Write the structure tokens for this entry.
Amino acid sequence: MKNFIQTLKNIWSIEELRSRILTTLALLLVFRIGSYIVLPGIDAQALAAANEGGGGLAGLLNLFTGGAFNRASIFSLGIMPYISASIIMQLMGIAVPTIQKMQKEGASGQKKINQYTRFLTIVITGFQAPGYIAASVPESARLYDTPFWWVTVIVILTSGTLFVMWLGERITDRGVGNGISLLIMIGIIAGLPGAFFQEVIASLGSEGNGLVMLLIELIALLVVIAATVALVQAVRRVPIQFPKRQVGNRQYSEGARQYIPLKVNSAGVMPIIFAQAIMFVPLYIAQYSESSSGFFVELANFAGFWYNAIFFVMVVAFTYFYTAITVNPNQMADDLKRNGGFIPGVKPGRSTADFLDTVLSRITLPGAIFLGFIAILPVFAMQAGVKQAFSIFFGGTSLLIMVGVILDTLQQIESYLLMRHYDGLMKTGKLAGRASTFGMAG
């Protein structure tokens, strides 16, 4: 406890880090306040009565927006339209030569891509906003139902999404951590206390499973969290060597052994965010459909077989896809060759790139499968008797995002501490994944 208090003092003593943390907290507070501001012309009480007991995929979307979806707030659509636009732009980067050229232009090209992504976000939100009002806000909750009111709420919803996107970018630039991921995480965490107390009340009630089963649930949750942390931080160390250096009359060896840390889950939380964003599409289509059956209605069933089967496959596919665009074996091989380094037993250049690509493919497969299994784990929890509101935290998108974002934020804070010669957040070791491309083995 004493070391923890000292670490907090160290964090507070660094002016830049203190400013970034306070900025992050202030912007997150703005996001949470906005999630409670209801759209004009909507009866909040009638809407709450209509959405009482709502679950399924719509409940999951409500979780990501911190409850704003069911409250019909100005941030009802949250950041998901921006994520959808980012997915489309990254897919276009594979097929469209113009986008590929921008990706190779460095910072200027990325700036253009970001601008196109923002414009595409406006288009996507413009289509999703009227669908959301029509499907999620019943006529009994609409105080006004005129064309002017529809235009007004569509503009407000679009502006709200753009404002949330701006908050995320400001957090990334001036705060700590990835702003977009933090906004999603804070919405998820906001629903955790309520879901936990509901599970406690249900378990200890007359029809509940009892205290013993509740303790077993909590132990299982801790095991899943530990496994998720292990997945996020697991690395495969590829040993590398550098030639001896001659300085004057003295000869220096390569010193401590060096390695390239290839993460088992190089893609982080992005594959599951991308897959979840796409799985929300059947929800919107099903809401437009008047029939209670059909393929898209089945896909909108959070606990259904087809939803989870397709979700699993998409998480695995996006893991490979995002790993391919974020980790470049050719560039790593070129950097090694330029610095005179080599992998023992492997020729520099093309052979090194092929070797790294093979290793990356082999470690990505079990990582992708495990990631996909964790993504659909809440369904198994529901089958075991856990309430849906609490089962969402037994794996799935919510747990992976929380673990990944928290670890990434802690790594950034630790890097500030270590740069100023303070002890890191963990005295006995460093958070995995903080090292750069070439790390020193302990």
